[in-house]
Amino acid sequence: MPSTSAATADASHWPPPFLLYLGNAPDDLAAKTARGLVQFRPEWCVGQFRGPECRTSVDVPDMDFAQARAAGANTMIVGVANAGGRLGPDSVADIVAALEAGMNVASGLHERLGSHPQIVEAARRNNRHLFDARNPPATPVGNGLRRAGRRLLTVGTDCSTGKMYTTLALETEMRARGLKADFRATGQTGIFIAGRGIPIDAVVADFISGGIEWLSPERHDGGWDLIEGQGSLFHPSYAGVSMGLLHGAQPDALVLCHEPNRPHMRGLGHYPVPDLRTTLAANLAAAQLTNPEAIAVGVALNTSKLDPADAARACREAEDLLGLPAQDPVRDGVARIVDRLLESVPC
């Protein structure tokens, strides 16, 4: 069964309401896709399915597939992310069961739903649809030509530091002020939340910058494109995607995302997390290749593992170090970062 391209999709292509599939997710981070949907699209989420070894929850009702369908779920979202983006045998069996119960299935993993004959056959037999959010469209090679419009890109010291959440929080704050601002999704969770986007880590390397030029074309309405960052320039596994984003976005502004006290780069115990000043300098240097006027406007800290006093202290220290407003988007919002953005970038 053919998969729908994420770049042209909206919520009607993977129709809500959703059952969120957690399977046997080993920790909270593994379920970040499901958690993002509950955070930003709660009205679409009717329940979660957890396997017997699941070690996390996104705090919606537990349901089996028949119960979810009876509750109105139209699509099961594979709400987990793992190294390599693979579908294990248990997940394949569960997806078949969800199709048999009458739901469509959408996944953002690297391993395509359509690569499993038993899944394809179950979809055909039940007249259900499969959606692969990591099925990128054809995009051009980047050309670096300046284009109209204003753009902000979130960057990070490491993977999973809150770039998607920060970008969505910026969109919410800016729209609340009556500004035109649009979230541009580049990862599976963001694509499911926004209903469209480009899975940039599934794009052939030569086309990454062109993919972002395509995702964020010129605009003439005075609004902002807020582009979800990925990876880190300092992560040996994923720096290529981060560099392509910086060049293709041509950002006017950067927001640096960081988790204080993280012991090492995600998945690489032998690599320390870089310091804020070094990270920001490297990202600005890369961004200024295609936009010499790119500046930093704020720091977004993920202080979820700190108590309130330590969280406030971490924000003050980052602010003193870089001379930029530093906020935890979850605890504090992003109003001061938006203030600095509007003060610093000409309309």
Automatic annotation (TrEMBL):
- Give one Pfam family: DUF1611
Q: Which InterPro entries match?
A: DgcN-like, DgcN-like_C, DgcN-like_N, P-loop_NTPase
Span of domain D-glutamate N-acetyltransferase-like C-terminal: 143-338
Q: Where is the D-glutamate N-acetyltransferase-like N-terminal domain?
A: 58-136
> Which PANTHER family does UniProt cross-reference here?
DUF1611 DOMAIN-CONTAINING PROTEIN, GLL3100 PROTEIN
Put simply, this protein is called DUF1611 domain-containing protein
